[in-house]
Amino acid sequence: MNNRYKSEKDVFFFTMNWAIIIALLILVWMGLSTGGSLLFIPMWLLILMFVVSTWYMTNYEIDKGHLRVRSGPLNWNIPIDKIEKIRRKRSMSSGPAHSRSRLEITYAGGSMLISPVREEEFLKQLKGINRKIAIDVPDVKKDDGAKKNLSR
Questions:
Q1: What Cα–Cα distance (Å) separates residue 17 from each residue in 22, 28, 91, 98?
Q2: Predicted local distance difference test score (pLDDT) of residue 146
Q3: How far is C-alpha 112 from the chain's CA centre?
Q4: SS3 label, residue 3
Q5: What does the alpha-carbon distance between residue 71 and residue 133 come to, in Å, rounded to a whole number?
Q6: Cβ pair 44, 31 in contact under 8 A
Q7: Euclidean distance between CA atoms 53 and 69, whole angstroms
Q8: Cβ–Cβ contacts within 10 Å for residue 90, how many?
Q9: Residue 94's pLDDT is what?
Q10: Contact status, residue 56 vs residue 50, Cβ threshold 8 Å
Q11: What pTM, to 2 d.p., does this model score?
């Protein structure tokens, strides 16, 4: 079983992300070609590197009793035994996820929004480590409204 899950990417976030990347590239190009302020060009390049790194390097890894969340240069380490609840949340809130259909992980100390591919496998793996996790995740891929009930 693979312990690393990439972030699912939907069309909205794909479009938004690439629009930001293209706008930043245009700003850098315009700044270089017109002799613009050398102060702004490095700032735009840093923002560009951050956006690109979060797009390509957002993943979730289950390893040694921890859920490690990585999004570009940002990292979180959540002990799986501290996870209390997982539920579906359709949200535009900031978080290490590139899909509007997200999972909200509630744990002692906070919560986090993620969007792993191979979601069912991801949830089963977490539940196998911590049987106390309450999982309430309607299956949005099926139109019958059935829920994935992994709390047994």
A1: 9, 17, 16, 9
A2: 38
A3: 9
A4: coil
A5: 24
A6: yes
A7: 14
A8: 9
A9: 78
A10: no
A11: 0.81
